[in-house]
Amino acid sequence: MKIDIHTHILPKSWPDLKKKYGYGGWIHLDHFNAGCARMMKDDEFFREVESNLWDPEKRLNDCQYHNVDIQVLSTVPVMFSYWAKPRDALDLSKLLNDHIASIVAKYPMHFLGLGTIPLQDADLAIKELERCIKDIGLIGVQLGSNVNGKNLDDDILFPIFEAASDLNACIFIHPWDVMGKEDLKKYWLPWLVGMPAETSRAICSMIFGGIFERLPKLRVAFAHGGGSFPSTIGRIQHGFNARPDLCAIDNNIDPISYLGKFWVDALVHDSIALDLLINKLGESKIAMGTDYPFPLGEKEPGKLIEVSDYNNNLKEKLLYNNALDWLGIDKTYFSK
Q1: Is the Cβ–Cβ distance between 221 and 5 less than 8 Å?
Q2: Among 44, 94, 104, 235, whose Cα sits 20 to 30 Å from the Cα of 186?
Q3: What's the whole-number mean pLDDT along residues 13-33?
Q4: What would the CATH number be for the domain defined by 3-9+52-335?
Q5: Counting beta carbons within 10 angstroms of the beta carbon of residue 161, is it exposed (0 to 12), middle (13 to 18) or buried (19 or more)?
Q6: Is the pTM of this model over 0.90?
C-alpha cells in the first residue's frame, strides 16, 4: 500500500475573484491550450500547470501507474490568501474545500482531503475548520508556515490549533510567503533555499512557542522532510543551551526532545537525507509525500523508499503506516 500525504489540487475553474471581491491579487487559471493552463496572479504569470492538477481521472490514472492507493488532497498554497479581507478569504476557502470534499465523496477509496482556512481571522478559521471536519468529510487542514509575517506561535493562532486538537483533525504545514523572498528572485531560490528555511521557521516557532507542549495530542506533519530543521537541530539545541534568555522565553523544554512528536513527509530527493530523517525523527514519523503534480515533487512516488535497503517493516511504515497514524485512521477506514 502507498499513501501520498502531500498532493495539491484545484478546481478547473472558479469565478473572477477580482470582479467578485472588488480588488486584485487573486489567482485565476488561463486555459490557453487543451490540458494546459497558466496560473495567473492578476496579469502576472505564476506557474504553468497541466490537467492532472484539476482532473481526478487523470490523477487516478497516474496513481494506478505508480501504484499509489491513496492521495491526500490539499489546495495549492498560493490560494491560502491570508493577505485578503478575511470574509473574502473565507468565501474562497469554502469554494476550495467544497471542491476537495466533492472529489473525496466521489472517489472515497482513493482520496482524502485537507481543507484551507482563513488564518488571518481566528474565529472565521475555526468555524471553517469545524465545517470541514464535521460537515463535509475532510480529515484535517493545510496551513501555511506563517500568516502575513506572524509566526505560528502567535497568540492569535493558538485557538485554531486548540480547535484542531479538540476535533481530532490532522494538520499539514506547507511553506509559503517565504522570509527574504525579495532577495531570492533569481535562480528559483525561493523554492530551493527559502522553502526549506521557511519550514524550519515553522517547526521552531511551534517548539519554542510551546504549541506541542500545550497540545500533546495535536497531529502535525511538515512538508519537504521538515525543510532544513532535521539537519540543523544540533545548532538549534546548542543555541537553546547557549542563550536560554533568547530561546527559552516561552518554553523551557529542550527542542531536541520534540523529535518524534511530529511528522514530516519523505520528500527529500536524497537517500542520505532520508537516512538522516529516520535517525533524527524516528521510523514512525516519516510518511511518503510527493508534492504531486509539481516539478519539485517525486516523479516516481515512493521510489526513494522502495529502492533502499530498509527492511520490509520499515518500508511499510514509510509508505503507508505512518501516514495512517498521522491521519488518525486505520486500514478499515477504506472498507466502510
Answers
A1: yes
A2: 235
A3: 96
A4: 3.20.20.140
A5: buried
A6: yes
